[in-house]
Amino acid sequence: MSTIFSKIINREIPADIVYETENVLAFRDINPQAPVHILIIPKIEISKVTDIKTPEHSHLMGEMIEAANKIAKQENISETGFRLVFNCGDDSGQDVYHLHLHLLGGRKLSWPPG
Ligand code: AMP
To answer: Cα of 71 to ligand 1 centre, how many Å?
Structure first.
């Protein structure tokens, strides 16, 4: 089922896009939890981590990590550090059922998460 992120991919609603390749899109989170809070998504519809099942999906995950590394450099947080998070399912607090990797940084992040 399509989500609001499909509308961002199709440019039907605006987003602050910071990075794009053939397969991956990244944009700033509308409700940032850190000075840098960017969402990295595949352009194909995959609902959540447990739906990653094919070699193509696994390759896409690698592309998302590659994107995160490049964006962290762009945002000057590569050296200071950052956090990558996939929420998966209700208990994690996943709200949008289009796979997305949160890239968080620009401040000291606490651990464990809530
Ligand atoms: P999650 O709770 O892991 O599903 O995260 C979904 C994230 O999407 C939240 O951090 C929201 O703030 C963010 N979000 C929802 N709608 C938009 C939007 N239109 N543009 C940018 N970020 C959004």
So the answer is: 18
Q: Where are the domains of the chain?
A: 4-105
| CA–CA distances in Å: residue 26 to residues 6, 61, 76, 101, 103 | 12, 13, 16, 9, 10
pTM across the whole model: 0.98
CATH among 3.10.150.10, 3.30.428.10, 3.30.710.10, 1.10.10.10 for 4-105: 3.30.428.10
pLDDT tens by residue, 10-45: 999 999 999 999 999 999 999 999 999 999 999 999
37, 57, 98, 100: the active-site residue = 100
